Fold this protein.
Amino acid sequence: MNKIASSSFMKPNSPSAQRMPHRLTLALLTVISLLTGCGISDGKLTLDFSPQQIQEAIAPKFPVENCPLPLTCIKLQNPKISLPEGADRIQLGFDGIVTLAQQPLTGTVVVSAKPRYQSTTGEIFLDDSQIQDIQLAGVPPRSLALIKQYGAPLMQQALQRSPIYSFKNAQAEKIARMGIADVKVQSGKLRVVLDPSLSQGPK
């Protein structure tokens, strides 16, 4: 009977055995990158969103309207997305209509929002909306203050209705839910970085 050298078996604590989960993770990342369109570098996945992609995701949520006071209504419509270079927030420009005593006044409203990753569902939302600029001719200062006060919550409610992206593939969702490393605006795009080494759950 020929003896088989013990070195031909993989011992549980051997370096080769310890590398197996890492190899499996890299293999899984490669599959996920092909399924989701992610890039892969240094064992991490990156998912980039252009302004147009974000625009298509949030456009169905608008217009939105709120009437915080009698005879005073705020309406935001026609969102336009921009990603200022070097910023960590997404900028949203809207056509704004403020109705005061049944008199509509039109102009523009610029809002910024920060990408937020919901780890329990594997979804990306826009959060922490802030009004950056308002251009409405003929609107008195008191009304502008009301627009800022009520406009941001109105925006936030609209953006929280649905995510701008959801990981739909089961494997991709698992990796993303447990291994998100960073979500920010970078090089003119919204970039999501996934790092499996941050995973704390079962593989």
About this structure: Residues 1-26, 31-36 have pLDDT under 50 and may be disordered. The radius of gyration is 24 Å. The first strand starts at residue 39 and ends at 41. The chain has two domains: 13-50+166-198, 51-159.
